[in-house]
Automatic annotation (TrEMBL):
This is BD-FAE-like domain-containing protein. The keyword Signal applies. InterPro entries: AB_hydrolase_fold (IPR029058), BD-FAE-like_dom (IPR049492), GDXG_lipolytic_enzyme (IPR050300). GO terms for molecular function: hydrolase activity. Residues 174-219 form the BD-FAE-like domain. Keywords: Hydrolase, Signal. It comes from the Bacteria. It holds the Pfam family BD-FAE. Residues 1-21 form the signal peptide.
Length: 321
């Protein structure tokens, strides 16, 4: 049964979109709440559409007339979060996707922070950008992910999802659809935003990092690089998708020293398969942190070089985008 909280959340999301707001800073101009598509969700048992929104942060000094662009996706275990939401856990505070965009804009990159459908909305997938044959049901229904999702639900005062519920599965797929839509929207509107449709990177934190991996390697979206903070591909058959891919974008994967153990274990498991598929993964650790860490935290690469997370991300983009 749909909870009253779900209806309350969606009654706000489904209001007609007002004119987008604007932020101006020393190094950027940001246009907020731009609709980039629509997604199916469930309200009181009925399937309807809601607007999908993004913030576009333009640098004061772009790198090119047609500028490279980074698309950032927030985390929250597919149940919580937003483009401008901060997580603060045991003294560790994350950087919002909007603030990441401001940091990228300072370096001359256009950056986009998107929202996507969350599990409280009970999203309905639409097979946009993939076929069912590319889905891995065992991963989409992974017990560790389901258990953590229910832990967060209980923290919100909601009943846990029963075994076999398709809600988490559908949300993971829908999030990938939404990011895929965002990439399509940017390509179709490249002139409007003065961006290069051939120079798009995707990235994010946790669920956002997973979604970025899914879109780049499971759906073969036309992207040039992946920035993943504490995430990996999940629920899409990356090996099968690779058969239809001419080129493979590289990835920068950063994780906390004390990150979530199921995530660390699963990353160790998939890294060899990525290598076999020709996915070049640059791996770095964030010493002293768990799953949550800010953009300015120091990261340690496999070559023992030390640099802040954001500097490592910018250097990666400079090389590959």
């Amino acid at each position: 049964m749909t909870k009253p909280l779900t209806s309350l959340v969606l009654s706000t999301l489904l209001l007609s979109t007002a004119a987008s707001a604007e932020l101006v800073g020393e190094h950027f101009t940001a246009e907020l709440d731009i609709p980039y598509g629509k997604g199916l969700v469930t309200v009181d048992g009925n399937i309807t559409q809601r607007d999908l929104l993004m913030d576009v942060v333009k640098p004061a000094e772009p790198r090119a007339d047609q500028n490279p662009v980074v698309v950032m996706t927030f985390g929250g275990n597919f149940i919580r979060g937003g483009r401008n939401d901060v997580y603060s856990v045991e003294g560790a505070q994350t950087t919002t996707m909007r603030d990441y965009c401001k940091l990228f804009a300072k370096e001359g990159y256009t950056c986009v922070a998107i929202d996507y459908r969350l599990s409280l909305e009970e999203p309905v997938p639409s097979n946009i950008g993939y076929s069912d044959e590319l889905l891995v049901e065992d991963e989409l229904r992974m017990k560790a992910l389901h258990d953590r999702h229910n832990m967060l639900r209980q923290g919100k005062g909601l009943e846990p999802l029963p075994d076999g519920s398709p809600i988490v599965r559908n949300t993971i797929i829908s999030a990938a659809e939404d990011l895929y839509r965002a990439v399509e929207y940017l390509q179709a509107n490249s002139d409007k935003y003065s961006i290069d449709p051939e120079r798009i990177a995707v990235g994010g934190f946790s669920a956002g990092a997973m979604t970025s991996f899914n879109v780049a390697y499971g759906m073969n979206a036309p992207v040039k690089a992946v920035l993943a903070n504490s995430g990996r591909s999940l629920g899409f058959n990356v090996e099968a998708a690779a058969k239809d891919r001419d080129t493979t974008p590289p990835a920068l994967l950063q994780m906390g020293q004390y990150d979530l153990e199921p995530l660390v274990t699963s990353v160790r498991y998939v890294l060899p398969s990525y290598e076999k598929l020709g996915i070049d993964v640059d791996l770095a650790w964030v010493p002293g942190f768990g799953h949550f860490y800010p953009a300015g935290a120091m990261a340690l690469g496999t070559d023992l070089a030390r640099s802040p997370i954001i500097e490592r991300m910018v250097a990666f983009l400079d090389t590959h985008l």
